[in-house]
Amino acid sequence: MRNHLDNGKKLPFPDGILINGRGPNGASLNVEQGKTYRLRISNVGLENSLNFRIQNHKMKLVEVEGIHTLQTTYSSLDVHVGQSYSVLITADQPAQDYYIVVSTRFTSTVLTTTGVLRYSNSAGPVSGPPPGGPTIQVDWSLNQARSMRTNLTASGPRPNPQGSYHYGLINTTKTIILSSSAGQVNGKQRYAINSVSYVAPDTPLKLADFFKIPGVFRVGSISDRPYGGGIYLDTSVMQADYRAFVEIVFQNDEDIVQSYHLDGYHFFVVGMDGGQWTTASRNQYNLRDALARSTTQVYPKSWTAIYVALDNVGMWNLRSEFWARQYLGQQFYLRVYTTSTSLRDEFPIPKNALLCGKATGRHTRPL
């Protein structure tokens, strides 16, 4: 696939969907009558949003990427690329086999695959057609996403234990607007954020930053606003201050759903809607119980806004979760920087770190 992309071509439409690596009816889940099970559902595909459902069974959402949620019940669940959900299902139906169904979303051709939910005292195999799901309806998915909220009364690992961390009361110190684009550069397909298509250097950025090696990257090589120009190649690094509280807006002017991930952080997904984001869009933000997660979708011709507390020093990758887009440049690095060299703020590079590129021969400091 890399060769295909390196030759300037796009990846073809996939052949099918796998559940735990298995094709149609290859994956099965055995349950006992009356018991409740937790399913963790992850979309580890290359580019397509998926809808997950189980014939005649409801799913109670309880967790999103490590965050307790309000326990809302769904009949089907949209899972975008790179996202994970935990749901509870109860084996409360007549004892037989039921379809587990996964289908693509927002694709002109809908791919569908099935698995089997098998009761231990099953009286028979799956029957009837697999239950249908949503296909191209954006509003349906948007409304479902808005219905997912953090459970502020649940204990556990989350950014606001016992409700003491009120992200909605913190003033943001900076707004970053990120817009994706696709186009040709030197006759080959490339993808970009704010017109910059990322090119990996021969030296890892963190090593270059730590050892202050010149000529590897330039801070500010990507703007914090789209300027509307054509796509160009660069090793894009954006500067941000340690402990800043930042608003990031993903503006998607393309006609596909997108998915973005930020390494090293959970962020609050405070808003999403169609059209162009403006400062007035803040009036509809959820500033109380928005989900904190690490991967968010951005719907076609739409925007998604997040708040993130930059409390983790380092060189962090922000990228499209669509593998081909990421590989062909739709990513950049956020340099969360402090002048402090205290171990309280950042651990030193391990002694056994691989020092390559222009960092070859350098020495890490001992702990």
Provide the number of structural domains: 2
Mean pLDDT: 94
Strand order of the largest sheet: 12-11-17-22-19-20
Order of helices and strands: HEEEEEEEEEEHEEEHEEEEEEEEEEHE
* CATH domain topology of the largest domain: Immunoglobulin-like
**CATH class call of the largest domain:** Mainly Beta
Describe this protein's structure:
The chain is mainly beta and 367 residues long. It has 2 domains: 14-140, Immunoglobulin-like, CATH 2.60.40; 168-359, Immunoglobulin-like (Sandwich), CATH 2.60.40. The chain has helices spanning 2-6, 138-147, 205-210, 323-327, and strands at residues 28-31, 36-42, 50-54, 59-64, 67-68, 73-74, 76-79, 84-90, 97-104, 112-119, 174-185, 188-193, 196-198, 218-219, 232-234, 236-241, 245-252, 258-262, 267-274, 292-293, 295-298, 302-309, 314-320, 331-337. Strand 9 and strand 10 form a beta hairpin. One of its GO terms (molecular function) is oxidoreductase activity. Belongs to the multicopper oxidase family. It holds the Pfam family Cu-oxidase.
